[in-house]
Design the sequence.
């Protein structure tokens, strides 16, 4: 697939969304505490894949054909990741986001045990083996106290650069029960990455359960809009002024229209949430970033320009491949029509500004 | 610019208002304590009769959950889409620098001063003893 590198990211780009996958649950066993290892083996849980239903591994969109592995889930091999993405696109840093059933379990303690094991595994098997890699801390999102504990445990390791949540959880993300997570994240300068996905405590569409994957997938952006509205309206960014949020795999084009509606309505009902003293859009521009892929770009370069203008900021987009999900072919990880200085911002400057734990090295 | 007598001071108690017409324009006269303010009775958003809206306070919260009622009775809420305006300046809460209701100069003057003229008083009878609300426009 040697194509002209029109949409190829600039060398030294920072890939803000790479999915490392567990080859199977058994590989986690050495990383559990003894109590939980026995608990898991007694129940035979190591035989389950804990593949989240938001991301069925065999849906074509979740597995680019030339990135598929013969005998293991896509994304589960470091060597393959190096060949497919890190070396090939000259990636300076890649942020690993593990999406796993641990994040949606009902038992808060089991959820924590799994998250700890995953974080230990990612550190030993990925971060220790390739200095370009960093990772998001996987936490039990339905117990904010336990999540904060896990953040405290891992924050001293600068290779953990973010806290990972799913867009659709038991409660809207802005609710105060979740604040211990934001408090801990802010304390350590960790952005909170909100990844597409649902714990399926509620249907992914506000109308009820959809019948088809298409609906589920497309409804994600409504889930993101609701999550963002909740964070803004509950005043999370007022309470935690240094907090940054990265919407991962949210798509981009839904945002301007959603913000217009938020701004417009705020003008009339702002007294209900008096802590919101500025236009919600301004708050979002300051605190919220979005990863690029899957980029729901309009068909022409001209239209794309309009969307970017509507965002009103060139600091919001962060380069991502969303490896091994299938959103582009060849090396065309960026929409071809982007002006070069914006391309550089998206690939390098914006990620460095967002993930302050990343080492700033001179650009090659 | 001319001075228009639009009300006697006693007519508008503190916290009260009167909507008057001056040179064909409707103006809301508001009294905060012993000060008087005038705003055009036309919302800069979409033209609602702004001065008929509810008089409210400025509700603020430095952080979520910490509520303060400030400047009681000094804000005006548009009857249509509920944007809030500062009675003292006409500035909107939501966009104070670009969304503003036009404010007029309002003063209190003694009848004795007024009768020396010039002034116009279409609906108010001016006597030497009383005090009057005067709009300059
Ligand atoms: S007309 Fe006054 S707020 Fe819309």
Sequence:
């Amino acid at each position: 697939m040697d194509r002209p590198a029109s949409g190829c990211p600039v060398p030294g780009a920072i890939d803000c969304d790479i999915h490392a996958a567990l080859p199977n649950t058994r590989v986690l066993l050495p990383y559990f505490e003894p109590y939980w290892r026995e608990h898991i083996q007694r129940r035979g849980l190591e035989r389950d894949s804990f593949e989240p239903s938001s991301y069925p591994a065999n849906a074509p969109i979740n597995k680019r054909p030339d990135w598929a592995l013969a005998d293991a889930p896509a994304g589960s091999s470091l060597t393959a990741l190096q060949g497919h993405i890190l070396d090939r696109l000259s990636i300076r840093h890649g942020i690993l986001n593990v999406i796993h059933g641990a994040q949606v379990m009902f038992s808060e303690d089991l959820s924590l045990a799994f998250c700890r094991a995953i974080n230990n595994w990612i550190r030993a098997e990925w971060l220790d083996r390739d200095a370009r890699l960093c990772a998001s801390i996987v936490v039990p999102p339905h117990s904010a106290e336990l999540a904060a504990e896990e953040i405290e445990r891992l924050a001293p390791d600068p290779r953990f650069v973010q806290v990972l949540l799913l867009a659709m959880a038991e409660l809207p993300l802005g609710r105060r029960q979740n604040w211990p997570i934001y408090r801990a994240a802010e304390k350590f300068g960790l952005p909170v990455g909100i990844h597409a996905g649902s714990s399926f405590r509620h249907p992914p569409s506000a109308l009820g359960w959809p019948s088809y994957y298409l609906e589920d997938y497309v409804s994600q952006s409504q889930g993101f809009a609701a999550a963002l509205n909740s964070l803004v309206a509950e005043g999370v960014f007022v309470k935690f002024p240094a907090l940054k949020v990265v919407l991962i795999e949210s798509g981009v084009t839904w945002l301007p229209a959603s913000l217009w509606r938020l701004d417009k309505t705020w003008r009339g009902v702002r007294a209900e949430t008096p802590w919101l003293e500025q236009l919600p859009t301004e708050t979002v521009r300051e605190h919220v970033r979005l990863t690029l892929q899957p980029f729901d770009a309009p068909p022409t370069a001209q239209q794309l320009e309009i969307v970017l203008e509507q965002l009103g900021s060139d600091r919001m987009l962060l380069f991502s491949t969303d490896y091994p999900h299938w959103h582009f072919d060849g090396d065309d990880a960026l929409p071809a029509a982007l002006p070069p200085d914006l391309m550089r911002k998206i690939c390098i400057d914006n990620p460095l500004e967002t993930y302050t734990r990343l080492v700033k090295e001179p650009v090659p | 610019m001319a001075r228009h007598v639009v009300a006697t001071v006693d007519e508008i108690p503190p916290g009260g208002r009167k909507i008057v017409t001056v040179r064909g324009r409707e103006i809301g006269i508001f009294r905060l304590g012993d000060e008087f303010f005038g705003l055009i009775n036309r919302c800069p958003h979409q033209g609602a009769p702004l001065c008929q809206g509810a008089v409210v306070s400025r509700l603020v919260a430095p952080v979520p959950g910490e509520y303060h009622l400030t400047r009681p009775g000094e804000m005006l809420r548009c009857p249509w889409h509920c944007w809030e305006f500062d009675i003292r300046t006409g500035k909107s809460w939501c966009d104070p620098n670009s969304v503003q209701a036009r404010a007029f100069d309002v003063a209190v003057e003694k009848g004795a001063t007024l009768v020396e003229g010039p002034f116009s008083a279409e609906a108010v009878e001016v006597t030497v003893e009383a005090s009057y609300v005067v709009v300059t426009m």
User: Anything to note?
Assistant: The pocket of FE2/S2 (inorganic) cluster is lined by residues B 43, 45-46, 48, 78, 80-81, 83 (CB under 6 Å). The two ends of chain A are 25 Å apart (CA to CA).
